[in-house]
Amino acid sequence: MSEIRIAILGASGYTGAELIRLLRNHPQARLVALTADRSAGKPIGSVFPQLAPFGLPDLVAIADVDWSGVDFVFCALPHGTTQAVIAGLPSHLKIVDLSADFRLDNLDTYAEWYGHAHQAPGLQTEAVYGLTEIHRDAVQKARLVANPGCFPTSALLPLVPLIEAAQIEVDDIIIDAKTGTSGAGRSLKEGSLYCEVTEGVHAYGVASHRHAPEIEQDLSRSAGRSVLVNFTPHLMPMSRGMASSIYVKLRPGVSAEDLKATLIGRYRDEPFISILSGKDVPQTRHVRGTNRCHINVIADRLPGRAIILSVIDNLVKGASGQAIQNMNAMYGLPETTGLDLVAIFP
Ligand SMILES: NC(=O)C1=CN([C@@H]2O[C@H](COP(=O)(O)OP(=O)(O)OC[C@H]3O[C@@H](n4cnc5c(N)ncnc54)[C@H](OP(=O)(O)O)[C@@H]3O)[C@@H](O)[C@H]2O)C=CC1
Ligand SMILES: CC(=O)N[C@@H](CCC(=O)OP(=O)(O)O)C(=O)O
């Protein structure tokens, strides 16, 4: 297939840099426009020296992009800024939006959790939730894909097949999740300072994190009724990586081995998902820098309960890697194109 001419909006951020790193290995991708806000007008190499040697376009403001030379847009802007930007783009463009702006189908739920009315409700009706392994058919036909959040990706990949198989009680799901600090983005925030993050761990967004309704949206779709979850994220002193420990109650007659068999069957042909053997514990270091998700299911000591462990790299399967996987699906390319990566270890 011919080349895909790509613009990255928000190229001077963490997910933007990760898109550029990964797309360097994509044979069809040609980066024709990179945008920034504070850094508009600068060479990308002045923001990210590791990207200086590759002949990339300079950073420009979004208003200065010539859309006639662009086929595809990765939108990696802060949530809340993206609906208006995407609503103003020409209709020939295919788009994967990495922000949360098009993830929630229910406009009232969006307004409740994001504190303002949706600014592009018409576009929301055409947006497809891009958890690729679960919504592949819709992603392949989509023009606008809402790339999932990192916590929802790590939780939904194991939970959706188990709910569809009616193997777990949907009213008793606890998601205890940990993330690296790059999840907060590159802009200056007191909570991301070294002294606030190093040598300690803390929960945040307790009983109020905006990824709860996103997780619940897909779990409710799978269950055919409203599902609520207990979700608590924690900030870890590491730059990237995400681990979700998920505590579930088994339905009568179901064992932890049954859950594992369901996941093995569902993901047998999925290149990015591994169900680990025995009681092997998934570790973030084993997926670092890759688009992979490692999962295991272990019987709890408490009768009738199981513990599901799921790890991803928040910047790759949790953001830029899944975004490229979705682009590949939208163009009918093998989903692994540009994403055939081995973890950086140790
Ligand atoms: N980091 C992660 O692990 C994940 C992030 N996401 C989502 O992806 C999106 C990007 O995240 P991330 O890369 O971490 O964010 P960063 O804060 O690192 O980068 C944001 C980018 O957007 C640009 N920008 C900021 N404000 C504006 C504006 N008003 N108009 C135009 N451009 C603007 C910035 O430019 P400049 O720096 O020049 O000001 C920068 O290029 C967010 O919506 C985030 O929620 C999703 C999953 C995981
Ligand atoms: C450490 C940290 O702050 N992480 C972010 C998650 C970023 C992400 O996945 O998602 P969005 O695209 O929905 O922002 C948070 O908890 O909000």
TrEMBL record:
Domain Semialdehyde dehydrogenase NAD-binding per the UniProt entry, residue ranges: 5-142
The top EC class, named as a word, is: oxidoreductase
Specify the pathway.
Answer: Amino-acid biosynthesis; L-arginine biosynthesis; N(2)-acetyl-L-ornithine from L-glutamate: step 3/4
Q: Which SUPFAM superfamilies match?
A: Glyceraldehyde-3-phosphate dehydrogenase-like, C-terminal domain (SSF55347), NAD(P)-binding Rossmann-fold domains (SSF51735)
Q: What is the residue range of the signal peptide feature? A: none
Per the UniProt entry, what are the Gene Ontology biological process annotations, in alphabetical order?
Answer: L-arginine biosynthetic process
Primary localization: cytoplasm
Q: Where in the cell is it found?
A: Cytoplasm
Q: Which reaction does it catalyse?
A: N-acetyl-L-glutamate 5-semialdehyde + phosphate + NADP(+) = N-acetyl-L-glutamyl 5-phosphate + NADPH + H(+)
Q: Where, by residue number, is the active site?
A: C150
Family matches, as Gene3D superfamilies: Dihydrodipicolinate Reductase, domain 2, NAD(P)-binding Rossmann-like Domain
* EC number(s) per entry: 1.2.1.38
Q: Name one GO molecular function term.
A: NADP+ binding
Key words, A-Z: Amino-acid biosynthesis, Arginine biosynthesis, Cytoplasm, NADP, Oxidoreductase
Which GO cellular component terms, listed alphabetically, does the Swiss-Prot or TrEMBL entry include?
cytoplasm
Which Pfam family, just one, is annotated for this protein?
A: Semialdhyde_dh
- What does this chain do? Catalyzes the NADPH-dependent reduction of N-acetyl-5-glutamyl phosphate to yield N-acetyl-L-glutamate 5-semialdehyde.
Q: Please name the NCBIfam families in this protein's record.
A: argC (TIGR01850)
Family assignment from sequence similarity: Belongs to the NAGSA dehydrogenase family. Type 1 subfamily.
Q: What is this protein called?
A: N-acetyl-gamma-glutamyl-phosphate reductase
Organism this protein belongs to: Elstera litoralis
* Gene name per UniProt: argC
